[in-house]
Amino acid sequence: MTNKFQTPVFFQHKLPLLSEIKSLPSMRTVDDLVLVYDRKLEKLNPFKLWKEQFSTRYPVNAGEELKSLSEFSEHMNKLSELTKGCSPRRLGVIAVGGTSVGDFAGFVASVLKRGVNLVHIPTTWGAALDSAIVGNTSLNVGSLKNHIGTFYPANGVYIVSLLLSSAPPKNVASASVEVMKMGLVAGGALFEKLGRSTLEGVHLLWDCIPDVVAAKQAVVGEDPFDTNGKRQLLNLGHTFGHVVEDYFNWSHGVSVGFGIRFMLEWSVQRGFMHETKKSEILKIAERLWPKEINEKHKAMPKKELIARLILDKKSEGEGSIHFIFMRSPGELMREQVKILNLVDEAHRQGWVK
Question: How far is residue 339's CA from residue 308's CA, in Å, rounded to a whole number?
Answer without folding.
Answer: 10
